[in-house]
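User: For a reading group we're discussing how well predicted structures match intuition. Take S9 family peptidase. Before you show the prediction, I'll give you the sequence so everyone sees exactly what went in.
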Amino acid sequence: MTIHKDFPAIEPPVAAEHPEADTRHGITRVDEYAWMRAENWQEVFRDPSTLDDKIRNHLLAENEYQTAMMADTQGLQATLFAEMKGRIKEDDSSVPMKDGPFAYGTAYRTGGEQPRFFRTPREGGVEELLLDGDHEAEGKAYFRLGGTDHASDHSRLIWSFDDKGSEFYTLKVRDLSSGADIGDIITDTGGSGTWADGDKGFFYTRLDENHRPSKAFYHVLGTDPAQDRLVYEETDPGFFMSVGGTRRNDWIVLSINDHETTEYRLIPADQPHAEPRIVAARESGLQYELEEGGDIFFVLTNADGAKDFKIATVSASDPSRENWTDLVPHEPGRLILSIMGFARHLVRLERKDGIPRIVIRERETGEEHAIAFDEEAYSLGLSGSYEYDTDVIRFSYSSMTTPAQVFDYDMRTRERTLLKTQEVPSGHDASNYVTRRLMAPAHDGELVPISLIHRRDLELNGQAPCLLYGYGSYGISIPASFNTNLLSLVDRGFVYAIAHIRGGKDKGYGWYEDGKRQKKANTFHDFISAARRLVEHGYTSHDRIVAQGGSAGGMLMGAVANMAPQSFGGVIAEVPFVDVLTTMLDASLPLTPPEWPEWGNPIASESDYNIIASYSPYDNVDALDYPPILAVAGLTDPRVTYWEPAKWVARLRARKRGTNPVLFKIHMDSGHAGASGRFSRLEEIAYSYAFAIKVAGRHAKTGA
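Assistant: Thanks. Here is the predicted 3D structure of S9 family peptidase, as structure tokens, for the group to look at:
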């Protein structure tokens, strides 16, 4: 392990040790840093000023330490920030999406941090400002806009915001004729509302004290929210709930799910006081999604062993499971990701052999065609439509070298119209870059895809620094899409690579199943195998690879640091889920019960306990020669609580060998997503990139 001497000889904070023992299944663990969890953590999420002074002072000391250790990168951070900001069109706007007499869109003003919501006449014209995020954020240390929903008669707008970072959203209703918010204000919501009953009221979810959306309500405009009708209460803490609507405004849809089981309940939108009607009762492992189709529903489901999903149809008058009829059969290896129903077409986004496709099906004839693309590896996204009776859909396309493009596509004529290409004001020449797809043999013979980008003039002699990114949980796939920020590394001679490891769905649903619960170790082995493959192919060397991941990807960072510290020259763990066992043993935490299908339930199962204990990063810190490590967290994060990385950093420093530093940066006024503004977020990325350059980029070019 190379000892990095670029850091000053400053002593880090030393956390006090107050050992607390916990015994489960006859196994005792001792946690010397359990005191870092505030007893009033729910209150801290709502009001950070209530944090205990002992904990606050320790966190502030951590921030002082990391600031001093990274002081020599201040100029580099400023340069990186300027570069990344220079690649953003400051007054950028979306292509407005049509809905009736209007088209709705978002835009930023030059220098603005927050989006502005606007509308124009349907075929274009003068913009009407509906909501100014910069104005709403004035005077707030943190501010993030949530969901919006305009009424079907276009007279009002539901909008929401979070001003703590704790994801307790406040809902408001704006009168679009006057631009003023009316008196309907609802706190502690999940962040969105859905209009119903001719826009006389709306549905929403409210979070309980443990930050779970356990109740759905109906609010009538002009009434006291305290009198809102409780529509449905989910009593199982293992399930989350959301509420939405259909484009025809005929149904209110309650979606209830954990990570492997789904249940839908329906309410006619013009009968908001009706009891929700269940579609298919929850059955462990059964997943389905409903999509409107007029007098039918389309059902995307894994029922009957359809691991990679199939599409069925069912009458809207009786959508019970026994009435489902297969329309698009299951095809192993072709993962259907999502569907959208229209008056004359059914659209599906699917992935086969790791490549996404958009397939259009004519409802009357059953004829199908796919939208064709030229590049070998790319990213696709369905933007859909506000409207149901239309032949036009919208989608986005990009690759690691091709800036994002937005298209309208006529499903009848098959005509593709380019609406917008992402502008890079500082310039971008795709011919200067090369993107590649490698396959890394894993420990068990599986082949792990790697997407990478580097400058065309880079000499592949094993000397280049590399940032290797990974996630690998919840079935989330990381797309090989265009990202202007990473060019600040690539232009300095870095190779930027994404490891498409198990735990995601990059190679189908089985790829996800092979990276969860008892097979979770495959995720970590895959990432290590990807690092080795990059070295074998001459892209880099192990002491020049900086591993990066966030949230569950931060857990990945902690695990691979324990398993193969010699394989990496540095580790960046952002909002890292590193105290997995302790968190999964605490049913009071916001995400714990819903997470048991993903990780296992160590409370009920000794086997699950032992599996999690075998890889949980905090529990496996040892006397190893770790590379330099950077952990980043947010005080009000309800998803990965601040004390997880705080404890991990303290234990790493106490137990590790060698002199490589462990840094901890904690945002005292934000949560899981970090800074809320688009430019303040760039400052955070510049900080992480500066760390990567500091520990591995000594081998890189100093300029762009």
